[in-house]
Specification:
Elements: E1 6-11, E2 18-22, E3 26-31, E4 39-45, E5 51-56, E6 63-68, E7 72-77, E8 82-88, E9 107-113, E10 116-121, E11 126-130, E12 140-147, E13 152-157, E14 163-168, H1 182-199, E15 205-211, H2 217-225, E16 232-238
Parallel strand pairs: 12-15, 15-16
Antiparallel strand pairs: 1-2, 2-3, 3-4, 5-6, 6-7, 7-8, 9-10, 10-11, 12-13, 13-14
Helix pairs in contact: 1-2
Keywords: Repeat, Ribonucleoprotein, Ribosomal protein, WD repeat
Organism: Funneliformis mosseae (Endomycorrhizal fungus)
Family: Belongs to the universal ribosomal protein uS11 family.
């Protein structure tokens, strides 16, 4: 429940969150999954007048745009709680007028689709803004599979190489040579997937990097690549070095 007038509302299919704009100049982010009644997860404040329209980005689950009677459209990253960018269409009928006499054109409607924001307002015009240069794309995470004959290790890192979580055949309960087997690798990968969900990591785009000839490499890869509705696999690489650079080994010299 909210005791302020709601002027705009938008639901994000990517994150499951709801954003609403209000008469108290505040944007509220709701999580309808938390309980039977949606709760306010966070609030965003920067507009100087009513927030009349809200639209989530269709490509980045953390980004949204808001339009206001203050004549601006603000692009937000909800992780930082501050506007990433402000688009203003404040116009003057006479360029020679003093600044305080500039008439602010109210924004009534905002819609964000892919790399374009559309807005309409009091100036009787439709405005089109490109966002490709000002809005960062979602981060791509890397899933590393290191498969040896003695163990299978699966590690999740961000694009900077920081380790976020890791599991191995040994950490999921397998002993000695069993750690490198097919079943151990499958459970290791499943454990990483479950840990990502438990930590609430917003992993949408991934690269899978495979290294090693261990028997668990195929099991781990299949488990990570076939996760439906969780992430998009952008690239798959295999960094396993080939013995003798892929050539026939040199014959032993006869003495």
């Amino acid at each position: 429940n909210c005791d302020k007038v709601v002027y705009g509302i938008s639901y994000s299919k990517k994150s499951g969150l709801i954003a609403s704009g209000h008469s108290d100049r505040v944007i509220r982010i709701w999580d309808p999954r938390a309980t039977d009644t949606a709760i306010v997860k966070l609030t965003l404040s920067s507009h100087k007048n009513w927030v009349t329209s809200i639209s989530w980005s269709t490509t980045n689950s953390f980004m949204l745009a808001s339009g206001s009677y203050d004549g601006t459209i603000k692009i937000w990253d909800i992780r930082s709680k501050t506007p990433l960018y402000t688009l203003s269409k404040q116009q003057s009928d006479d360029k020679g007028k003093e600044k305080e006499n500039i008439k602010i054109k109210k924004v009534f409607s905002v819609d964000w689709d892919n790399d374009v924001i559309l807005s309409g307002g009091e100036d009787n015009q439709l405005h089109i803004y490109g966002t490709k240069k000002i809005v960062p794309s979602e981060e791509t995470y890397i899933l590393h599979i290191h498969a040896s004959y003695n163990n299978t290790l699966v590690t999740l890192t961000n694009s900077r190489g920081d380790i976020l979580l890791t599991k191995s055949g040994g950490s999921v309960g397998f002993k000695k040579a069993q750690r490198g087997g097919y079943e151990a690798a499958h459970q290791t990968a499943a454990g990483v997937i479950q840990k990502i969900k438990e930590k609430g990591l917003n992993v949408k785009n991934v690269e899978i990097c495979i290294k090693g000839f261990g028997p668990g490499r195929d099991a781990a890869f299949k488990a990570l690549a076939n996760v439906e509705n969780q992430w998009n696999v952008k690239r798959i690489t295999d960094t396993t070095p080939l013995p003798f650079n892929g050539c026939r080994p040199r014959k032993a010299r006869r003495l």
